[in-house]
Prior knowledge:
Elements: H1 2-29, E1 36-38, E2 50-52, H2 55-88, H3 94-111, H4 121-124, H5 127-131, H6 138-147, H7 162-172, H8 177-184, H9 190-222, H10 231-256, H11 277-293, E3 295-296, E4 299-303, H12 307-314, H13 323-339, H14 345-377
Antiparallel strand pairs: 1-2, 3-4
Helix pairs in contact: 2-3, 2-9, 3-7, 6-9, 7-9, 10-11, 10-14, 11-13, 13-14
Amino acid sequence: xxxxxxxxxxxxxxxxxxxxxxxxxxxxxxxxxxxxxxxxxxxxxxxxxxxxxxxxxxxxxxxxxxxxxxxxxxxxxxxxxxxxxxxxxxxxxxxxxxxxxxxxxxxxxxxxxxxxxxxxxxxxxxxxxxxxxxxxxxxxxxxxxxxxxxxxxxxxxxxxxxxxxxxxxxxxxxxxxxxxxxxxxxxxxxxxxxxxxxxxxxxxxxxxxxxxxxxxxxxxxxxxxxxxxxxxxxxxxxxxxxxxxxxxxxxxxxxxxxxxxxxxxxxxxxxxxxxxxxxxxxxxxxxxxxxxxxxxxxxxxxxxxxxxxxxxxxxxxxxxxxxxxxxxxxxxxxxxxxxxxxxxxxxxxxxxxxxxxxxxxxxxxxxxxxxxxxxxxxxxxxxxxxxxxx
Length: 390
């Protein structure tokens, strides 16, 4: 009798143990993978802590309040610019040229808020290559204009189109405005035809991306897992790649001679206008800050989930000073340095390149925090290679 009772008791204990393990397994598997992140930061207290953060909500805010509205504004700005260019063919006056230049700058500033989002259709159709490759290839542009035939889809023509090419066509095809206007005063001249083809290509490419986001948006938001191809990982890398290459290197490092023996002032953004390299750089830094903080495009009072919120939620800084705050502090110092520069980076480089190099260094300090500290904290791997180090 005692043996029978003992046997039954043993079966009961085994059954209870198996049931408890099944319940625990079910509970773990029920955790939504889009709602959690295990911190890999070296701070011991965070190594095994699962911290919930709604990544889908962050992706939705990025798409609905920042990315799509910025693309919408870009396409609208380009449409307005084309309207003004069309009128140039009928009335090539100084006043009309000034209006076109104004609309060009407005659209170029909007582009600074778009360039970092090289995902989805933008990456597929090489939007950046059609919009902002500089310096331009002057000789090839001249050949294109003289021949009147060219293929702007050809990679050899990437440096003959986009905002930099418009800069050349509006400021660089003559020694003064009178010479520039002469090129457009002949109705349907090759110069005018090229100008129209440039803006048409820019409108076409940006519209394709904007319209694709209407359907791509749901796929983008749903891809919230932590994998190499997920939305957060890809956009995080694109954001940092833009800051490191498109902003730090292209706008400052390359023209200042950081990567060459000599300084190269002809490689600044907005080279021909001579007045807007600083304006464009500050606009891009503002775009970076707003995206990092989570300020909605053209509505900074609307704030959503962002990198800053994510880092604050993890709170892994050993000195109890948030990494997000440190990034914003370094970013503010970089903005201060840019504000100290001449409006024309060509003038700045020629007269006092040391200030340009100091500004580069201040931006590089942000690169390290983003590319090393932030990605490590978010457990995201860098998906691109570079040769200049961190």
